[in-house]
Amino acid sequence: MRDGMKMKMKMKMMVMVMAMAMVIVIQMKATSGQQSYVNNHQLDCYNHFNSTDGYVCNGVASSCLSYLTFRSSPPNYNSPVSIAYLLDSDATLIAKANNISDVDTIPTDRLVIVPVNCSCAGRSYYQHNASYLLKRRSETYFSVANNTYQGLTTCQALMSQNSYGDRNLSVNLDLHIPLRCACPTANQTVKYLLVYLVTWHDDIPSIAARFRVQPQSLLDANRLSSGDIIYPFTPLLVPLTTDPSQILQPEEPPSPPPPPTPQSIPANNSKSSSNKWVLVGAAALLVLLLLALSAFLLRRRCRKPKPQPLSTSSPPEKNNNIVSNDHSPLPETTKSSSISWSSSLGVRSAVESLTLYKLEEVQRATDSFSETNKIRGSVYRGRFKGDEAAIKVMKGDVSDEINILKRINHSSIIRLSGFCVSGGNTYLVYEYAESGSLSDLLHLHPPTKLKLPWKQRVEIAHDVADALNYLHNFAHPPYIHKNLKSSNILLDANLRAKLSNFGLATQTRVVTGHDDDDQAQLHLTRHVVGTQGYMAPEYIESGLVTPKLDVFAFGVIILELLSGKPASPEQEANYNNKDDNNNNQREELLSESIRNVLEGDNVRDKLRDFMDPALRLDYPFDLAFSMAQLAKRCVARDLNSRPEITEAFMTLSKILSSTRDWDPSDELQHSRSMSNGR
Ligand SMILES: *[C@@H]1O[C@H](CO)[C@@H](O)[C@H](O)[C@H]1NC(C)=O
Ligand SMILES: *[C@@H]1O[C@H](CO)[C@@H](O)[C@H](O)[C@H]1NC(C)=O
Ligand SMILES: *[C@@H]1O[C@H](CO)[C@@H](O)[C@H](O)[C@H]1NC(C)=O
Ligand SMILES: *[C@@H]1O[C@H](CO)[C@@H](O)[C@H](O)[C@H]1NC(C)=O
Ligand SMILES: *[C@@H]1O[C@H](CO)[C@@H](O)[C@H](O)[C@H]1NC(C)=O
Ligand SMILES: *[C@@H]1O[C@H](CO)[C@@H](O)[C@H](O)[C@H]1NC(C)=O
Ligand SMILES: *[C@@H]1O[C@H](CO)[C@@H](O)[C@H](O)[C@H]1NC(C)=O
Ligand SMILES: *[C@@H]1O[C@H](CO)[C@@H](O)[C@H](O)[C@H]1NC(C)=O
What we know:
The chain has 678 residues and is α+β, with helices and mostly antiparallel strands. Strand 11 and strand 12 (387-395) form a beta hairpin.
């Protein structure tokens, strides 16, 4: 029993000694320098540390130009435009800082420099504000900070600046994102502080070499001393005397062979071994501490089960020290210490080149967005070096549309020729479609319909089917347009159709049997957006998105071409306001009326009534009948009864070639003889 007491005392002493040693180590770190390194505390979401909220406002200036870094991460954030949206920077400035163009696809994991304005704005921490719309149910404060923002913010900072509880996050919630940045202190004779993101195999000497700074100034800037460990996915401030774009130009061969796993043997040089020793030392200390504790607890014969962590939810509530063990960076084994930059040239030429316009150029082209150049809504007519163009002004994130259109080259899809990003707006510059939209031509001014004889209508349907067939089956990756309607079909001077407005388009993905969160998200939208009359029933009812959604809308477009009527009574009412003498108001959607037309008796007569009076009798009735049947199948309520777009396209190809053989005078003759016979 006395032995036991002695042992207990010994253990207590040991624990105290260990604790004191730790305190001394921490003290040593905190004494010299500028900003504290997060030291992997960002992993411990439910505890606050001074270093996790941000860099304290201790600089000379309360705001300054600063640089963040970000590693290109496909498929979402791998171009200056998309990274600019994520980090609320300016695509043009990012492109300039990295000597690439706005839309260049940046190879995976390439370090991108992102200039931002950094400011205290009356707070105690420097920060650059961005915002982020949650996209998946599985996202957490930790995943947003660590995975999406790559460590540019922390879960602690996110939680302190957003009012939602960590279990109350839901899709489409807009999070406020404070990004870490800092301005130089009086003591720092540098111009900028860059936030570098530590990755595997980084160490202080290699980061210092990469940015051409003294290792000591790098250590000082982060209140580190030479033996300290740095961890992957943590930010490190790099003090720079010049603009980083001038430093990071020189070239290296493309990516080195896959880096060895963290468990591999570290290289054999002095600096690495010093790091290793610190690590081993820390691990040894930890093991001793744990041994001491467990022995202590065993002695006490504590019967209480170890308390389980309360939260089993998302952010990893790992013990800091344990995490540091398996995340410990190892010294470099390769010589790659500067950024590899040249291969972006290859990428640049591979990507369909888009012109990057300056705001002044766009303003000049549109006469400062004058009313006379307005086409409709936020679309303007413009002239670049004599070529007409349509310019669409958009707010928010339009990188999706840019990314789709820049890859697509098809004569029946509107061509994006360039764009300009400025002041939160994106100006998309498209080829100009002289004849306006199909909906205007069909429904707005009745006389214009005369410009659309039968042959043109079949050609338009054929063009649209061609474009959809390309999108669904031949584009890489395949897309679903999701917003097909006659106002999104533009016509050029020769009345050839061009599909436009890819703002809602989504990639098609194969649905796996498992109802995995991310997979399901892609095919079931909770946010049903669309235009009445064009939306397929399964989409309205359950948000199901499949290529058959486009097939349904395509069927409606054929019906518009046949009947000359808008897709829904509401739209008809809109058009009729301008034209009071049209009084036969419909009750039904076009997609429903075709069922009545083609079912029951007198199908031929009903179809003749259904057809656009503007066509008069100048159409081959049998072909019109085939087209109406195709449309009826396309608008079937059950999506499995609808044809694939490929089949619809083939049917239309046949109708088109028969139309080309058709001689209008035959039909006239035929119908005259029919009416004579009556
Ligand atoms: C953390 O912040 C508190 C309050 O701002 C301060 O009293 C404390 O000294 C800080 N700790 C360190 C290690 O900087
Ligand atoms: C930027 O890249 C171009 C090649 O696209 C090269 O000619 C030029 O020297 C680079 N600029 C700098 C500052 O390195
Ligand atoms: C910083 O702010 C100034 C003025 O508000 C602006 O002109 C500049 O473009 C901004 N820089 C960045 C990188 O956003
Ligand atoms: C950034 O956001 C914080 C918190 O919402 C706010 O106090 C601060 O003024 C913002 N900074 C700027 C520059 O807008
Ligand atoms: C943090 O993000 C990186 C990728 O950016 C990932 O490899 C790593 O596993 C994440 N860390 C944790 C603890 O999830
Ligand atoms: C989370 O949601 C629940 C129920 O909707 C609500 O009672 C609670 O106050 C919310 N918590 C936070 C921190 O917003
Ligand atoms: C300024 O830097 C020197 C050495 O570079 C250091 O000794 C001193 O403590 C620093 N002062 C402050 C206020 O950080
Ligand atoms: C590491 O260095 C020691 C002596 O410094 C040497 O004996 C050993 O072979 C080296 N190991 C490797 C893998 O280079």
